[in-house]
Amino acid sequence: MAFLARIKQSFGQTFSFFADSIAELKKVKWPTRKELTSYTIVVIVTVLIIAVYFTVLDLGISNLLRLVFEG
């Protein structure tokens, strides 16, 4: 019987977890479509700027090393 009691307690904890999760999700202030769009644009632009920066940096270092080792 102790085994069944542990299983019942385990399922109770699992259901309690999901119930608490749903309750917390109802408290969240979800962004509007306009806010979500602007956040997405900011992230994409930031990633593109960083990608261009590292590409230029990589090309510069590659050319510098090529000059040092071939020169």
Taking the sheet with the most strands, its summary is: none
Work out the strand percent. under 5%
- Euclidean distance between termini CA atoms: 82 Å
Number of domains: 2
The ordered string of helix (H) and strand (E) elements is HH
User: Helical proportion?
Assistant: over 70%
Structural class: mainly alpha
The total beta strand count reads 0
Summed over residues and divided by their number, the pLDDT gives a mean of 91
Radius of gyration: 27 Å
Overall 3D form? elongated
Given as residue ranges, the uncertain stretches (5+ residues, pLDDT < 50) are none
Query: Count of DSSP helices?
Result: 2
Structure summary:
The protein is mainly alpha-helical and 71 residues long.
Structure characterization notes:
With 71 residues, the chain is mainly α. It folds into 2 domains: 1-29; 31-71. The protein is built from 2 helices and no strands. It has helices at residues 2-27, 33-70. It is elongated, with a radius of gyration of 27 Å.
Summarize this structure as a short list of keywords or feature phrases.
71 residues; mainly alpha; 2 domains
